[in-house]
Amino acid sequence: MTDKRSGTGRNAAEDAAITPGTGHGGGTVNQTPKPAWQPNPNQRKPFEPEHTLSLVHGGNSDRTIAARAELVRPRLYEVCPWLHDTMDVVAVDRFLRAEARALILHAYIIEVTAEKGAGKVPSRLWEQATAADNLAAKLGHTLGLDPTGRAKLKQTVASTEHTLSDLMAWTALGLVETSAL
């Protein structure tokens, strides 16, 4: 008869007949303790901080992007001297990071294509490169680095200068109080 409370499928007499250290089939159970955990002696040492051993292309590495951005910065200021204004620092840095990432990914795609063919470039990398190019183009447009962006920037500056000259003329005529400016 089975003891329904214990759920073992045995009755109390059968449970008492099993002695510690023996299995159900009468064999002994291994009672030796497990040894303490030991690291694999063939395992490599952890990477040091600032390493580049696991770097594939650098398009996701902040250090690699920052280094490339600093190489692009002098050329940007040479071509676009109006960006030296301190008010544009954040926008310029954002553009430089986007452009640097686009250049890094493009260089890696060119390298893989030359060595193994375009079919060996992962589709995700093509997507990342396209997104990086689009972002750099959008940010460059905002800074006036393309013809339409530059035209909009000039129009905004001209409009602002016109408004300021009007305000100065009205102030001189006494039509506008200087405290309102």
What features would you highlight for this structure?
single chain, 181 residues, elongated, mainly alpha
Describe this structure in words.
The chain is mainly alpha-helical and 181 residues long. The protein has a domain at 56-143. It has helices at residues 12-17, 62-79, 89-116, 123-143, 147-173. Helix 3 (89-116) packs antiparallel against helix 4. The chain is elongated, with a radius of gyration of 36 Å. The protein starts with 11 loop residues before the first helix and ends in an 8-residue tail after the last helix.
Shape: elongated
Mean pLDDT equals 78
Which structural class do the helices and strands define? mainly alpha
Low-confidence spans: none
Q: How large is the share of residues in beta strands?
A: under 5%
Using the CA coordinates, give the radius of gyration: 36 Å
Order of helices and strands: HHHHH
Biggest sheet features = none
* Span of the ends, CA to CA: 101 Å
The helix content is: 55-70%
**Total beta-strand segments:** 0
Number of helices: 5
